[in-house]
Amino acid sequence: MEAQILDPCCGSKMFWFDKNNENVLFADIRKEDHILCDGRKLHISPDKILDFRKMPFEDGQFKLIVFDPPHLKQLGETSWMIKKYGKLNKQTWQTDLSKGFDECWRCLNTCGTLIFKWNETQIKLKDVLNCFSQSPLFGHTTTHNLKTHWMVFFKEEKESE
User: Fold this and answer.
1) b/e string for 51-89 if b means 16 or more Cβ within 10 A?
2) Is the pLDDT assigned to residue 159 strictly greater than 60?
3) Given a cut of 80, is residue 117 above it in pLDDT?
4) Does residue 64 carry a pLDDT above 90?
5) DSSP per residue over 60-90, as a string?
6) CA distance 161 to 147
7) How many CB atoms lie within 10 A of CB 102?
C-alpha cells in the first residue's frame, strides 16, 4: 500500500503514537543517532531522506501532511536542541519555510488536510504565517505562555472555470 500521509520533517517521530504506521511516509533531511544530555538515545531514522523545500513527490499525492519544521534559528552547532529538533538558517528561514509550505501544499491532494505545528520560542507564529501562501482554517493557540501551536489548513476543490 502506498502511504497516504506524509511527515516531511519527522525527526525522531516524537509526537507520533505509532512510529511505524504503514499509512505514513516519514521523511527528514537527516538520518542520525545521538545521546542526549540526560543520557537518552535519540534515533532519527526516516523512511526517506529529503529536503522539505523540494520534495520528489507528485502533485496531490498525499491526503494528509503533517508539517513540523525546525523552529529554532539560534543554537550552538553541538547543542542537544539542534540534535533533537534541527535548526533553521538565520538568514533564509522565511524563504525556507515559504518553500517548504508551498511544497507541502503542492503534494497535498484536493480536499486534503495539512496540519502545521510551530513553537514560537524564537520566531513568532504571525511571522511564520506571513511566509505562507494559504491561511489556516482553525488551530490551537493560547495566551497562557504555551508557545506550541497547531494549525489546520484545508485544500479546497478548485472551482470549475
Assistant:
1) ebbebebeeebbbbbbbbbbbbbebeeeebeebbbbbbe
2) no
3) yes
4) yes
5) T-EEEEEE---------TT-HHHHHH----T
6) 42
7) 15
Q: Which amino acid is at 144?
A: H
Mean pLDDT of 90-114: 97
- The three cell numbers locating residue 16: 507520533
HEC assignment per residue over 94-153: HHHHHHHHHHHHHHEEEEEEEEEEEECCCCCHHHHHCCCCCCCCEEECCCCCCCEEEEEE
Number of domains observed in the structure of the chain: 1
Residue 12 domain-assigned (yes or no): yes
In a domain, 161, yes or no: no
Q: Which amino acid is at 27?
A: A
Helix (H, G, I), strand (E, B) or coil at 49: strand
User: For position 23, which CATH number holds?
Assistant: 3.40.50.150
Task: With respect to residue 57, please indicate whether it lies within any of the assigned structural domains.
Answer: yes
Report if residue 159 sits inside a domain. no
